[in-house]
Specification:
Elements lengths: L4 E13 L2 H16 L13 E13 L3 E5 L6 H9 L6 E6 L3 E4 L12 H11 L4 H15 L14 H14 L4 E5 L7 H16 L3 E5 L3 H7 L2 E6 L2 E6 L1 H12 L14 E7 L18 E3 L4 E9 L8 E3 L3 E10 L3 E2 L2 E7 L5 E6 L9 E2 L4 E9 L5 E13 L2 E17 L21
Parallel strand pairs: 3-7, 3-8, 5-6, 6-7, 13-21
Antiparallel strand pairs: 1-2, 1-4, 8-9, 10-19, 11-21, 12-14, 14-19, 15-18, 16-17, 16-20, 20-21
């Protein structure tokens, strides 16, 4: 990766007004001040104004893929629009070297009454391409979008997926030095998403710079080499994708969880233990001293580990052999039993698999203060050889809100080994047959 700075953001702040009437009034006043050459008061807030971004600074090197994450309203999209020059900062400076390309909203820059063909020329011209350059790239744009039969239809009749296909195709073929994307990859079918990610990989191989906003943490950990965390308009995290995603999870752990989907095909066993057996696996596992742990400890994860069928503790596992993951939880007050969960991640922080007692419809009932349970998840290890991280935790819903009691990310590491070669993350366990034809 180059050490050349292609984006420089220094002390940038941007304010907005919550009131439409006052927004219009302030706009008229600001225009009048410009006309008469009076300085703008960009340091203070007028009634109903707020800082959408407040004193944000960072640099991006050529060839970096930077992910911006944060809760809704944190200021991520505002920052992306400032980088693209759609709006100007009230304070601070932004410098972007080279040609920029942006896909900030579906159909941004499209004229609804114009056809897809006409909008290709319009949008590409906005991105800085000459008419000759657009003509040269026209067929490639159309082929990538896959909208040949709708090319001469007004885009007002396009679906949101069609908007995305055309918008991404135009922005990508503008061959930008800096590519800005705001949640656009969340729309579209799986084949088109695959095509988009292949294009992003191509950009990275060419040394292009990519900045994108997404709520998909797996995209951050799998595609970015750096991430920024924005919270309430300020930069609160900057580092490796895994570290920043973990920081985001800590920041968000008291917010409501998304709708749960039930999963099947894993055995879950629950055992109620006397308090004398609270800690019994000490020394059996090399627990990560740098685990990322947080939560109220209302229901506390005392210990966890991976065992063979004959109850032997292991951290080197054989592929396609059955193991049990045990998690021991103590309830520190009388309460409904906690939801107990585990996930497995790769070293980059990408979640590969996992489940919990809620997904499996396991109801452990009511727990008295001090009750300890061991939840056992039984499964065949299908991961292909490599090093992985076991994460465990306890939580529950209280008054409709998802509350984390004890989350222990990267609790311990383990390795999967095999004498047989496979491709990818999971063993497909394929059965191969063949016949000779005449």
């Amino acid at each position: 990766m180059s050490t050349e700075t292609i984006i420089s953001v220094e002390g940038v702040s941007k304010k907005f007004c919550r009131s439409l009437k006052r927004t219009m009034l302030y706009g008229v006043r600001d225009v009048a001040r410009d006309v008469f050459g009076l300085s703008q008061n960009s340091n203070g807030l007028r009634p109903d104004e707020f800082w959408a971004l407040d004193n944000v600074s960072f640099e991006v090197q050529r060839g970096e893929c930077l992910g911006l994450i944060g809760a809704n309203g944190a200021g991520k999209s505002t920052l992306l629009k400032l980088l693209n020059g759609i709006t100007l900062p009230d304070k601070g400076t932004i410098k972007v070297a080279g040609r920029g390309g942006a896909l900030l909203e579906l159909g941004a820059g499209f004229h609804p009454m114009l056809t897809g063909r006409e909008n290709i020329y319009l949008s590409a011209a906005i991105l800085g391409l000459t008419k000759e350059e657009i003509t040269e790239k026209f067929n490639a744009i159309v082929d990538f979008a896959g909208l040949q039969e709708f090319l001469d239809s007004p885009v007002k009749h396009y679906s949101s997926g069609m908007y995305l296909r055309l918008g991404f195709a135009i922005a990508a073929h503008a061959d930008p030095d800096v590519f800005l994307i705001d949640e656009a990859l969340a729309v579209g079918d799986v084949l088109f998403q695959s095509k988009c990610f292949a294009k992003l990989r191509e950009f990275k191989e060419k040394g292009r710079t990519i900045v994108f906003v997404t709520h998909s943490l797996d995209l951050i950990t799998s595609h970015c080499n750096r991430a920024l965390l924005i919270s309430k308009g300020t930069k609160v995290g900057d580092g490796t994708p895994k570290d920043v995603v973990d920081q985001y999870n800590r920041l968000m752990h008291q917010r409501s969880a998304s709708t749960n989907v039930r999963r099947e095909n894993r055995d879950v066993e629950v055992t109620l233990l006397p308090s004398s057996k609270e800690i019994e696996w000490s020394g059996l596992f090399r627990v990560n001293p740098n685990e990322d742990r947080y939560g109220s400890r209302k229901a506390e994860v005392l210990e966890a580990g991976i065992f063979t069928q004959d109850n032997m503790a292991v951290q080197i596992l054989e592929r396609n052999r059955e193991y049990v993951t045990k998690i021991k939880v103590r309830h520190n007050e009388a309460m409904p039993a906690a939801i107990v969960a585990y996930t497995i991640k790769d070293p980059k922080g990408v979640i590969l698999c996992g489940t919990n007692t809620l997904f499996q419809s396991i109801d452990m009932g009511w727990m008295e203060r001090g009750d300890v349970v061991v939840v056992t998840f039984r499964q065949i290890m299908r991961l292909n050889p490599g090093n992985f991280l076991l994460c465990v935790g306890s939580a529950n819903y209280e008054d409709g809100e998802y509350v984390v009691y004890d989350r222990r990310f990267d609790y311990l590491t383990f390795e999967v080994v095999s004498t047989q070669q496979r491709v990818g993350i999971f063993d497909s366990d394929a059965v191969i047959e063949w016949t000779r034809t005449v």
